[in-house]
TrEMBL record:
<dbReference type="Pfam" id="PF00365">
    <property type="entry name" value="PFK"/>
</dbReference>
<feature type="binding site">
    <location>
        <begin position="342"/>
        <end position="344"/>
    </location>
    <ligand>
        <name>substrate</name>
    </ligand>
</feature>
<comment type="function">
    <text>Catalyzes the phosphorylation of D-fructose 6-phosphate to fructose 1,6-bisphosphate by ATP, the first committing step of glycolysis.</text>
</comment>
<keyword id="KW-0418">Kinase</keyword>
<feature type="binding site">
    <location>
        <position position="398"/>
    </location>
    <ligand>
        <name>substrate</name>
    </ligand>
</feature>
<feature type="domain" description="Phosphofructokinase">
    <location>
        <begin position="172"/>
        <end position="474"/>
    </location>
</feature>
<dbReference type="InterPro" id="IPR000023">
    <property type="entry name" value="Phosphofructokinase_dom"/>
</dbReference>
<dbReference type="GO" id="GO:0003872">
    <property type="term" value="F:6-phosphofructokinase activity"/>
</dbReference>
<feature type="binding site">
    <location>
        <begin position="450"/>
        <end position="453"/>
    </location>
    <ligand>
        <name>substrate</name>
    </ligand>
</feature>
<feature type="binding site">
    <location>
        <begin position="297"/>
        <end position="299"/>
    </location>
    <ligand>
        <name>substrate</name>
    </ligand>
</feature>
<feature type="binding site">
    <location>
        <begin position="243"/>
        <end position="244"/>
    </location>
    <ligand>
        <name>ATP</name>
    </ligand>
</feature>
<keyword id="KW-0021">Allosteric enzyme</keyword>
<keyword id="KW-0067">ATP-binding</keyword>
<keyword id="KW-0963">Cytoplasm</keyword>
<feature type="binding site">
    <location>
        <position position="269"/>
    </location>
    <ligand>
        <name>Mg(2+)</name>
    </ligand>
</feature>
<comment type="subunit">
    <text>Homotetramer.</text>
</comment>
<dbReference type="GO" id="GO:0005737">
    <property type="term" value="C:cytoplasm"/>
</dbReference>
Length: 527
């Protein structure tokens, strides 16, 4: 996740060293970095760290430099600094109107006790807590080749003692974009509750994602505690969602025309990119608007955070599908249960549902290539499973094995590639294979795609949504903009959106979690 790019520093390195470094870099970046001490003892080459450099996204650091760590940390601090409306405006804060104590009116500092329950702007949470001793350690994410310990602090989320908006004058808007996700209504509800607690009276919902900003005939919806009180009891989005949309400038024109001061944006990677573009455009136009995102996606594919809301619920629902496939397969003669689960770029749902169900014999994810045919292919393993236990269950992520299929060449309204259907392909291949070898096989295919994301949030997601929604409002009142409200390393924090949208988060095949999944399924390597 840490953007560590190692570079050879030309004048210091021989061609041989450069070649060695190139392969070390490849191994390092792909998680299979071979033991450096072993290489040294074989006297293959001089220690490479002399030539190694570490690059974070903004500044290139040379590990020969005795101050590289300090420089790295300064760079980190500036990257994770939270953009604020105070960067463009010389604003005076006022005491918050959000009080944790009831029956008191806060008119100024004199009414605030020593203990106040607020979060200080200097409070930080540590993003990474494992000290890896080697890049070969399971799941290692190292900043340099020696895995030096570098503190990576991020800003703690929560209510501040001072705020930058007059609640009575604020117009706040909420928009939900992308695909559906359990918990959207919980977050909308909490944002409304918290805004009202601050004293905001003008709260609106933008219907059907970013589309609601420009599509004629779509009217903003006034929101209040009374209106959203029970929306968490249903799945979906009270406001509606959509993909695709207008240009950022048109959205900001609309924000300006509607006189919106705070925009809360619920969505995945694409939505976050959109929210950041809106934030930048507001900045360019010198508008006093706080744009705060809340990461939503059942795919759990957003960088740096422990999980996105909706993921837990999706996994819970997905394992119900797996359980049905198990029951079908177990009850049939030579039954094969096949379940396809969502995950556009990553296999988190498939991996977690396989782990939680404990009923999966083969889990296939996009991060780990596999073959179906041949001696080491999936089909041979299914033959083995039918022989040894009489039935089996396969769980495949929708983006897995795309190299085995013809590209659809199509994209959706947001520009996301429409994947070819690996589930249907595998169903056909399995049926054909067992017919060809003359072994009876009863294949039961389950595609619970939209069922796993249309349900209401489970208990743990409902709590996550509550915290993230409330913190989004606190972040806006604190003047931040271009941030997302999330959970990192079990703590609730704000991250600049720019840091979470550089790529989709993917399952690390070298992680303990994937290894646990393999231990649980007992599957071999399929290539
Ligand atoms: N790079 C981008 N810049 C600006 N807007 C974007 C960008 N990518 C996507 N969007 C907009 O964000 C919205 C949601 O994007 P998308 O459909 O990719 O869903 P998502 O937020 O990634 O959620 P999901 O996890 O459901 O895919 C769309 O309206 C789309 O037009
Ligand atoms: O069919 P839709 O609504 O475009 O969404 C499908 C995609 O949305 C997600 O649920 C969330 O990104 C993906 O897993 C899936 O590929
Ligand atoms: Mg997306």
């Amino acid at each position: 996740m840490m953007a560590a790019v190692l570079k050879t520093s030309g004048s210091f390195c021989s061609t041989q060293q450069q070649h060695f470094q190139q392969s070390r870099r490849d191994q390092f970046l792909h998680g299979s970095y071979s033991n450096f001490k072993h290489c040294k003892s074989k006297k293959i080459i001089k220690p490479a760290p002399l030539c190694a450099r570490v690059t974070s996204s903004k500044v290139e650091l040379d590990v020969k430099d005795p101050y590289w760590k300090q420089k790295f940390q300064e760079d980190w601090e500036s990257r994770f600094d939270l953009p604020s409306i105070t960067d463009i405006y010389d604003l005076k804060p006022r005491p918050t109107t959000f009080s944790l104590k009831k029956n008191r009116t806060l008119t100024g500092d004199e009414n605030v006790d020593m203990w106040n329950g607020y979060v200080n702007n200097d409070d930080r949470a540590l993003l990474k807590v494992i000290k890896y001793s080697s890049p070969t350690s399971a799941g290692a994410e190292c900043v340099d080749l020696d895995c030096s310990w570098v503190e990576q602090w991020v800003h703690r989320a929560g209510p501040r003692k001072e705020i930058y908006y007059e609640p009575e004058e604020v117009k706040a808007a909420i928009v939900t974009c992308g695909g559906l996700c359990p918990g959207l209504n919980d977050v909308i509800r909490q944002i409304v509750f918290t805004l009202e607690t601050y004293g905001v009276k003008n709260i609106v919902g933008i219907p059907f994602g970013y589309r609601g900003f420009f599509e004629k005939g779509l009217k903003e919806m006034p929101l209040s505690r009374g209106l959203v009180e029970n929306i968490n009891l249903n799945g979906g989005s009270f406001l509606g969602v959509s993909r695709g949309g207008a240009k950022t400038s048109e959205i900001v024109d609309s924000i300006q025309a509607r006189r919106i001061d705070m925009l809360f944006v619920l969505g995945g990677n694409g939505t976050h990119a959109g929210a950041n573009a809106i934030h930048e455009e507001c900045r360019k136009r010198k508008l006093k608007v706080s744009v705060v995102a809340v990461p939503k996606t059942i795919d759990n594919d957003i960088l740096l955070m422990d999980k996105t809301f909706g993921f837990d619920t999706a996994v819970e629902e997905a394992q119900r599908a797996i359980n049905s496939a198990y029951i079908e397969a177990r009850s049939a003669y030579h039954g094969i249960g096949l379940v396809k689960l969502m995950g556009r770029s990553s296999g988190f749902i498939a991996m977690h549902a396989s782990l939680s169900s404990g009923q999966v014999d083969v889990c296939l994810i996009p991060e780990v290539p596999f073959t179906l045919d041949g001696e080491f292919g999936v089909l041979r393993q299914l033959e083995h499973l039918l022989k040894s236990k009489g039935f089996c269950v396969v769980c495949v992520a929708e983006a897995a094995g795309q190299d085995l299929l013809q590209e659809s060449g199509a994209t959706d309204a947001s520009g996301n590639v429409i994947l070819s259907d690996i589930g249907v392909h595998m169903q056909q291949k399995i049926k054909m294979h067992f017919k060809d070898i003359g072994v009876p096989a009863d294949v039961k295919y389950i595609d619970p795609t939209y069922m796993v994301r249309a349900c209401r949030a489970n208990a743990s997601d409902a709590i996550l949504c509550t915290v993230l929604g409330q913190n989004a409002v606190h972040g806006a009142f604190a003047g931040f903009s271009g941030i997302t409200s999330c959970i990192c390393n079990t703590h609730y924090v704000y991250l600049p959106i720019t840091e979470v949208i550089t790529a989709p988060k993917r399952v690390n095949p070298n992680s303990r979690m994937w290894h646990r999944c393999l231990t649980s399924t007992g599957q071999p390597d399929f290539h």
